[in-house]
Amino acid sequence: MKKIIRLDSASRVFIVITGIFCLGIILKELQSILLPFVIAYFFFFAFTPMNENLHKYKVPKFLATLLNIFVLLLISYLVSSFFIDSLMKFTGNSDYYIKKLDKIIISIAKDMKVSGSDLKDFSIQTLISKIDYGSLAGGIISPTFSLLGSVLLMIFFLIFITSGHSSVYKAIERTYLERFSTLSLKKMQRQMGKIQNGDALSENEAQEIESIKKSALDKLHKTFQSIPEQIQKYLLTKVLLNAGAGLTIGIMLAVLGIDFAQIWGFSIFFLNFIPTIGSAIALALPVLMTLIQTESVSFALLILGLIAGLQTVFFNVLEPMILGKRLNLNPIIILLSVLIWGYLWGIVGMLLAVPITAVIKIVISNFNSPNMKFISDLMDDQ
Fold this sequence. Notes:
382 residues, 14 helices
């Protein structure tokens, strides 16, 4: 007879906390491998609707994979070209803006009654000239090669995920789902007292057990289906909303005569993938440019109000309406997830924080455990 070891609540909590801590160490240490793998899986989910349509037209899987890679490389090329061209234009006029920023800083210092010999000769250009460009170049080149390596590794993962995902899913379905239904079956039998006395199940009882088994299979099957569907919905919604906000704010800034409006529009699009923190940075950049360009605090505050208002409409009104309650995460959970995943995986971790947390919430919400239900309620914004 097997001896069942029962742990008290304190021991279980300690084991869970230790497990989470160890998991965090693994995620941090294996970042260079796990991060490209996770990104590749998100791209796989994003390309799934296109791949399903290609499958309907009997397009071979390897051609669909090549098309996925081509689309991914095309998007990367267009985004990087736009970013590099905009950066070159910005750096071409940097001396002009640096001089204006010098004037603003000196003026603010004088208004604050700050004096000294350093203030008379203050120049941001002088501070920049003291930078060790050799070390800076080394610090830039090394991450650049690391980024290229990660991109190649991500493409490598995407190829194998596209070809092997269905097999992995079937393996999970055959093992985990069947095991879950078997446990439910045994539980039902114990409740009926058939295991202890060895009686055979009646026809109605057997049908009820089969119904429970089918219900459990359907529930978990729905969970595995809902994860890619919710990721696709989130990604599509975020891309469209961010693009709409970036385009609207970019056009508004161009009409108002703010320099490099396209750069600030792109920053609105990109940075708003990072909840809360990204929105604040995306708001600050064009306002700072407005202050430097016009040297008018009132006009800068006007830009601040307009951008904040538009971001509120797009991301606090339209986004919850479109995404619905399924991904309606608690703002505190969102902020914590951004900080935690940002610590583990840097800026990319911040970008992935919400979809990863949403996946965790979808999985947890399908468990019947009271503890899991409590965690799911904490994560939900009700």
